[in-house]
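README, section 4: Worked example with a bound small molecule

Sections 1 through 3 covered apo chains. Here we extend the same pipeline to holo records, where the ligand is supplied as SMILES alongside the sequence. The molecule in this example is adenosine-5'-triphosphate. Nothing else about the input changes; the structure line simply encodes the ligand pose together with the chain.
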Amino acid sequence: MTAALLALALAAGPAPVRVGSKEFTESEILGALATQVLVTGGVPAEHRRALGGTRILWEALRRGDVDVYPDYTGTLAEEILGGAVAPDERALRAALRPLGVGITGSLGFEDTYALAMRRTDAERLGIRRISELVRHRGLRFGFTNEFMDRKDGWPALRARYRLPQRRVRGMAHDLAYAALAAGELDVIDVYSTDAELRRHHLTLLEDDRRAFPPYRAVYVYRLDLDPTALAALRRLEGRIGAPAMIDLNARVLLDRASPEAVAGGFLRAALGLAPEVRVEGRRERILARTREHLALVGTALAGAIAVGVPLGVLAARRRRLGRVVLGVVGLVQTIPSLALLVFMIPLVGIGAGPSIAALFLYGLLPIVRNTHAGLTGIPPELADSARAIGLPPGARLRLVELPLAAPAILAGVKTSAVIAVGTATLGALAGAGGYGQPILAGIRLASIPLILEGAIPAAALALAVEAAFDALEPVLVPRGLRRGPPAPPGGSRART
Amino acid sequence: MPPPLLELAAAVKRYGNGEGVGPLDLEVAAGEAVALIGPSGGGKSTLLRLLLGLLAPDAGEVRLGGAPLADDPAVRRRFGYVVQGGGLFPHLTAAGNAALVARHLGWDRGRIAGRLEELAGLTRFPRDGLARFPAELSGGQAQRVSLMRALFLDPEVLLLDEPLGALDPITRAELQDDLRRAFRELGKTVVLVTHDLAEAAYLARRLVVLRGGRVLQDGTLRELVEAPSDPFVSRFVRAHRALGLPGEGA
Ligand SMILES: Nc1ncnc2c1ncn2[C@@H]1O[C@H](COP(=O)(O)OP(=O)(O)OP(=O)(O)O)[C@@H](O)[C@H]1O
Ligand SMILES: [Mg+2]
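The generated complex, written as structure tokens:
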């Protein structure tokens, strides 16, 4: 009996340790390494990969949405602690403890910011150090958005070296390499462990005035992390050197292996562990992404209908309030979807939450507007008749007004659904999965097949949703309303 | 003497554009039939909507049985109303339209079917049309469905805004007979709008001429013909005679 209960408790198990990672390859590999080293150490763990940038991961850690994620000492010192703490492990540990956060020792490599140029250019212009850039004000800079914005990134660099360049563009890390190779940019920021350093013939410029703080890789974890889990995690301390990390990155980026497979290989070779790496096949992946995508769209749409239709009714009933309601939901629509998603993260955390919230807000406008238009567009003689025959307001709405507005409402829901299917791809930025995940990974890895693995099903789903609504229309729209709204019944004829 | 069943006391209604009616004074006794006539835009429909409480007066008062008219669905069920143009709900069949309120009130199927049968007979509406949607009905059939809907709950007051406008002359004449009999036998109080002076005089003893939102004259056809209160009234009456209509019906 007790044994059975114990087995049951064990089967239910403790909640798995959630390992987060940022949306770049190295972070994903470190996330996969942590997950696998935990699992082989007997600690259930799951990897919530590629959740976003530093802020998102840090907030997620503080909220308890993730328990562990890989980061760098310099990032923690500058980005999280505002530069008030020296970027060495002891000082950081002391500063983070009051926040309920700890860090492991260095994993063995440093991934510092560096500036890179095409080797040919660097040699032609004789540039080897960052300070030498001052003399070439015409050079075109392209930096990751994070580098542009963070205090220890471009602002610090520009101030330290008094760099005069004004042509600075923000872009995604992986696109910057392509742009540099294509000759569209002259200087980009890179990480010192980037796989591309080998592939493209690049020169790293020396940080001769030490603008960048040291960036040693560590795992950041919540202090309430289970000690067994922490012990397992710490097995990776000092085990990954810079060449190893560049190699791991290159295997994912250049050899197209999955971060999981690469991490597994490393653990086997370096630690003698035998992690079980389950690699999903393409079919399995697409199915899983479809399920996630449908869940996002379905949940958001259901919410948008449940809230949007009553709001539309309210807007139609109360003119002045209606204008306000329509104005507000219209305003939400003008927020770029990416920005809306980012606004949601501090409010609802990471994972499906912010995406559903953002999709829900986006979905409101078409539904509210069409419900409002459908109701206010009811011909006055019909509205009058419904009142005149003595139906109370609720029955009027249910028996007359909503059925008459049904075609308009349905059209609004359809618009919302199609928008949601497209916009939900952005959800992958906040770790919601869905078709955006292969698209993002494809962009990161410059892999067209991977991009198509998300893009094609997304397009197909949008078409399928449209078709489904067209098929649904005869079921949901009353027969008398179908072939276009008939002229007010008997109306025009009655007058002649 | 009991108060008049329907009463407008210096009632004024202005639409947003400044158009409107009033001040209007009108009393209709229980069991009386009144026809509203007058030029287009004269205020006939507005007057009916005031009587029913679909519009609230800006000034003055509307009374039902001596008490201020309440904005209450239950009160409206004491009225049968045919809106100008019929106002049938396009998403409901003829039967669905006619029986909508009865169904809401929880009448059982048998009772509804019986009442539909009865009214289809009264309005000479073809039985097979009951299952059709308004878009599938002729204009005249649709009007009869509107009448059936207005009569369904057997209301004490009927407010009919051009209820027979789209009917062919034969059906129209027959329906005029039926309505007149119904009004008289059932003791209905009726206010109806028509553009046809002959129909007005046939269905109602009392004719009220509205123009510019005011009552120009209130009397029998004979009074309108012999003692017009206004040159417009005599022109209005003569216009009908010029068409060769037998204006002396009542
Ligand atoms: N909803 C409305 N909004 C603004 N003005 C209106 C409205 N309804 C009627 N009016 C105006 O009020 C006046 C009276 O209109 P009403 O509909 O009562 O006339 P009527 O006698 O019924 O005309 P008809 O014989 O053409 O039906 C007209 O001048 C008309 O233009
Ligand atoms: Mg009218």
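What to look for in the output: Chain A has a mean pLDDT of 85. Residues B 15, 17, 19-20, 40-46, 84 surround adenosine-5'-triphosphate (ligand 1) (CB under 6 Å).

Section 5 describes how to batch many such records.
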